[in-house]
């Protein structure tokens, strides 16, 4: 019984911490939406933006962790099995996403480059005050790049974010590399860290499913039913 109590309160503490993290991500996503700091640079995939990812991830983590916390604390079989099923579905989605990225890597790579060119054309057409132009300024300052391929993508309307310093002088020292190549290099350099992060997340999900099923089986044997 002492081991099961330890398991119960471990689930409660872990899910409470995840609930706080999920709420923080959700709140930060809403804050970024109100500020319009960064939207999607991929017109064909509008949900693939920083704000959307933070918002959706925050909602999923908050809802799932709340079910896990309440199910463990109340020792409720219905909530525990729901928590197990949701974690299992999230893991399936993650594995499916990883498989799609591996199988269609070249097609996705081509689509991203095409979308970057399209969003840059929209930024040129709408002017520097638009949200898309602000997004490009943010990306160019962050990755120290200019345009998709190079500075010529901006034609004669080169933004200040392409400058190697705060203001370009007569020498016009712009960043020579394009943002597409810079972002691709950054992703490849951080691929190992991303893989480790995915493995850690999957391990936590497996542990959560094991813990919830162990408690579920114990409650079933104890005849506690679906008490609230």
Topology overview:
Elements: H1 2-35, H2 50-74, H3 77-103, H4 105-126, H5 131-143, H6 179-189, H7 191-222
Helix pairs in contact: 1-2, 1-7, 2-3, 3-7, 4-5
Describe this structure in words.
This protein is mainly alpha-helical and 228 residues long. The chain has a domain at 2-106 and 190-222. The protein has seven helices and no strands. The longest helix has 34 residues, at 2-35. The mean pLDDT is 81.
Bin the strand percentage. under 5%
Note the gap between the termini: 20 Å
Please tell me the overall pLDDT: 81
The major beta sheet can be summarized as: none
Instruction: List SSEs in N-to-C order.
Output: HHHHHHH
Count the helices. How many?
7
Rg from Cα: 23 Å
Share in helix: over 70%
What general form does the structure show? Answer: elongated
Structural class: mainly alpha
Low-confidence stretches: none
SS elements, strand count: 0
Quick recap:
With 228 residues, the protein is mainly alpha-helical.
Descriptive terms for the model:
228 residues; mainly alpha; 7 helices; elongated
């Amino acid at each position: 019984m002492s081991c099961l109590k330890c398991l119960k309160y471990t689930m409660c503490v872990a899910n409470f911490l995840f609930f706080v993290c999920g709420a923080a991500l959700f709140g930060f996503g809403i804050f970024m939406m109100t500020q319009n700091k960064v939207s999607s640079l991929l017109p064909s995939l509008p949900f693939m933006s920083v704000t959307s990812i933070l918002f959706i991830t925050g909602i999923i983590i908050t809802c799932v962790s709340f079910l896990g916390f309440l199910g463990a604390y109340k020792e409720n079989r219905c909530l525990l099995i729901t928590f197990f099923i949701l974690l299992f579905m999230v893991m399936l989605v993650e594995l499916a996403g990883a498989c799609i990225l591996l199988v269609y890597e070249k097609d996705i790579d081509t689509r991203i480059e095409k979308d970057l060119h399209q969003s840059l054309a929209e930024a040129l057409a709408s002017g520097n005050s638009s949200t898309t132009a602000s997004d490009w300024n943010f990306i160019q300052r962050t990755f120290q790049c200019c345009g998709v391929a190079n500075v010529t993508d901006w034609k004669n309307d080169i933004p200040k974010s392409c400058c190697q310093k705060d203001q370009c002088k007569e020498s016009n020292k712009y960043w020579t590399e394009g943002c597409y190549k810079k972002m691709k290099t950054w992703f490849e350099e951080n691929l190992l860290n991303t893989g480790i992060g995915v493995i850690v997340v999957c391990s936590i999900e497996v542990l959560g499913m094991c813990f919830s099923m162990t408690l579920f089986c114990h409650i079933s044997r104890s005849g506690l039913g679906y008490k609230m």
